[in-house]
Structure formats: C-alpha cells, structure tokens
# Entry
Amino acid sequence: MRLGMRTLAILLGTSVGVGVAVLALALQPTRRGPAAWESAPVEGTLVDEAAGPITRLAFHYTPGGEPIFAEIYRAFLPSLDPAVKLLALVPPSEDGEARAKLAAFLATLPGGDAPARPVQVAVASGPISPWSKDRALVTNPDRPGQGRGSIRMVAPAEPAGAWPQRLADWNAPMDLARAFPTELAVSIVPLDFDAGDFAITGGRLLVDANLVGKNAGRGLDTPAKLKQALEHLFRLEVVVLGEKPGDVPRHHLSMYLTPLTDGTVLLGDPREGRQIVGAGWVPGEASPDSGEPLRPDFSPETLARFDRAGKALEAAGFKVVRVPTVPFDDKTYLAYTNGVFETRAGKKIAWIPTFGLPELDARARAVYQGLGWEVRPVPSRAAFPFHGTLGCLVNVLERSR
# Structure
C-alpha cells in the first residue's frame, strides 16, 4: 500500500474547491452571479441519507484507482437490490479503453459479470478521481413524474485556479447530465462545498462550522448567515454544528457522524476507539500527503470536538448514539459512519465500512444491529488513508418514496 502512495494521492486525493460566486441552472456556468441569499431556490428536495429505497446510484470508475476502490465495489455493488439503476462515469481514453476496463472489472465481481443489471456509462470531459459523492448534492422532484431531467445534481461554484483533475471532477455532474439529459439536470450554486459537508435527514439539513470557513469569503462568515442562505436555497430547516471552524471534527460530516432514521444520529466515539485499539496502536499505513506513518490522534482537543458535536446535535433534538472511531489527522478517520443506507420494504439496511480490525469492526456492527439495522460489511482498509471510504465513492441519485 505504501508503494506509489504519493502518486495515488496526486491522482485521487480529495480537495476543497474555492472560486468566485456563480449561479446557473444550465450546463455551463458563468463566473459572475448573485449571492446565495439572492439566488433562486434549487428545484426539488434534497435526498435523505437513509429514508426510502435506493433506485439510482452513480459511481466513478478510474482504472488507476482500483487499488483504492476495488474491494469496496466488489462487496457493495453486487449486494444492491437488482432494481437499482447504476450510472458509471469513466475518464476519457482512446479506443474506449476505460469502458473496456470497466466491463472487465464488473466481470470480476462475485457471481461473474455482476451486478446482474445494465450499467449505463458516460465519459468524463477530463481525468477524474474516483470520489463521486462529493461532486454534487442531489434533489429529487417534489412530485413524481415531473418530467425531463427531474433528478437534479446541485454542484458548487467553479473552483478558481483548479488543476485539470479538480476541474474535471467539478465538471462530472455536467458530464453525466449531458450523457443522460432525460434523467439528470444540474444546478450550480454560489457556494464552496463538497457534498460530504452536508447530511439530510427527516426534512432537516445538517452542516457544521467548517462550511462557514469555506464560505466566509462569500459573506457567509457566521453560522447564522450560512443557515439563512442554505434555508433559502434548499427550503429545509438547517442545523449548523459549532460556532467556528475547528469546533467540531474537521473534514466531511460523514467522517464523524451519520443520521439514520427516526431522529437518530450516529456519532463517532474516539474514546471507545482508543479503548479497543490501544493508545499506542498504529495501523501501518502512511499518510499519502506527507509519507509519514499514520498515528491516531486521541488528544483532548480532538475528543472535545466530538463532544461538542454531540451536544449540538442533542440541543437540536436528535438522539445521539456513539459508535467507535479512530481519528488520525484532520482528514483521516477509521469512520464507521461513512456508509450507504436505505429503508426498503420496512427493512433498514446499512452498508458500513470495515477495516480488518475484528474487535473494532464487531463493535461498530453491534451498534447498528442494536438500532435495528441489517449490516452489510464493506471492506475499506485500502481507502481510508486517502481520506474516504464507501460513502465518498458512490452518490445516491434517487430514492423512491
């Protein structure tokens, strides 16, 4: 795993896009536009993280990224309900090489040529990363059958000064919409974000003060201002965790919490993680950013961030349940919250990351099972040093009601 880590980090690393404010409800954005609180609200309703069955899902296939995602896709894709429609975005290549490699990869999934359903394929406009989730929030129509392009991907502002891969990643929703115009549309909103900065549950939108930091330059430099802008854009009640960046764990929300159903939020517990693995334990992997060995961070400052998130969630009326986690740096976690969830025919199903640590994995599984969830483990050890797991790699585009 250490071999080629720096190269993989350059090719695949998650980055935060920053740029000038834009708004467009078309495929090509402009570099000027109104502020978030002046923009028209986004059409449709943001897709809940766990309520309802998944009916359509997108993922990126990048041949060079197989060391990161292969074991995840092999466990996850064949276990989806056969009715789920899959959309794959591949990088541009000569003679359809990426398409051919995707077909060959799918043929290696359990069962042979699985998943047993057609996979619709689109070609990206540039060299993309495998991190599909963060490219766009998604809304579904308020009423079924609203017509052409009723699934709406909500993308951030175009990142200024982006390198080619970052710009190609930003273009990924537009590439998908061009390939499937009868199903997908795109809105670009004047905000800087990754979709992992948001969580949607029970008609409420969760964000944290780290998103304030990302958008301070857009005039959204307090939780109150961010809340007002988001409520205007998405027409949902917004809960902002923390008062300033760093109050709660850094990086994406899904790396330290996930809303389930019935007002329950699962929150990482680094104290239990430390109790299970030991204060001096090291995983053996290196940081792709620094090349230095990853070491857990159980400092009082890190513990306090998780605790503040828990208190803020409880103050907002959520039931908080803790699940073990192991934090490292500000972007890297053994996170059991970064999964995929659905409720289908009364059954609650959770695809959760596992990391080859039997006691830690078993404890996380028991927490979900104790809340009535059927757990489908997804081996994710190869992905976690790169600051993500299953929940970062796939984007749920549609749920039926």
Summary: The first helix runs from residue 5 to 12. Confidence is low (pLDDT under 50) at residues 1-7, 9-33. The longest strand covers residues 347-354. The chain is about 25% helix and 25% strand.
